[in-house]
Amino acid sequence: MTETTNSPAQADLTDHSYDGIQEYDNPLPAWWTWLFAGSVIFSPFYWVYFHSGDQSRTVVAGYNMSVAENLKLQFAEIGQLQPDQDTLLKFMHDPKWIKVGELTFKTHCISCHGNNGEGKVGPNLTDDYWKNVTSLKGIASVIINGANNNAMPAWGNRLHPNEIVLVSAYVASLRGSDAGQNGKAAEGQLIPAWPEAPGEKLE
Prior knowledge:
Blueprint: H1 8-11, E1 13-18, E2 21-24, H2 30-50, H3 59-75, H4 85-92, H5 95-108, H6 110-113, E3 129-130, H7 136-145, H8 161-174, E4 189-190
Antiparallel strand pairs: 1-2, 3-4
Helix pairs in contact: 4-8, 5-8, 7-8
């Protein structure tokens, strides 16, 4: 009697067959299996660390920290600004730094004041009627301290002093812009025009 044995190729076949195609027994490499198992074990710790409600660990927080560090390097060029009328007038007409004010506005203010200051929940910033401001430096005061029982939140402890000055200058520059033609209706009282720009501009 002749004993029959499976060839090596036959021994490596499984008993799974799909549409006439028989499955070959080719297990994954051990390193891949352990890597997958390690990923599964690691995932709950990752989830707890990054999704536990601590916003300081998010990608957005990391981006904001990087932006803040970059701004600090830029601010070394101009020192710490004071939110007075002369400083605001200078930076209102400085193309380089008004962009920083615009970035701050687009980051923090558009949900209430609209993308171009036309007003949404908050008032229209492009007309001549203002609710809590009667002078140029009053813009910075409202940004620092808030207004209307925190309907306008205080940003004095959230923004760098230079960001406050530059976003104030940007807000002031929106007055009289075309963006408000179809914006929110005027609120508050008519206030005097901003003072004339100084003759000396920043280099």
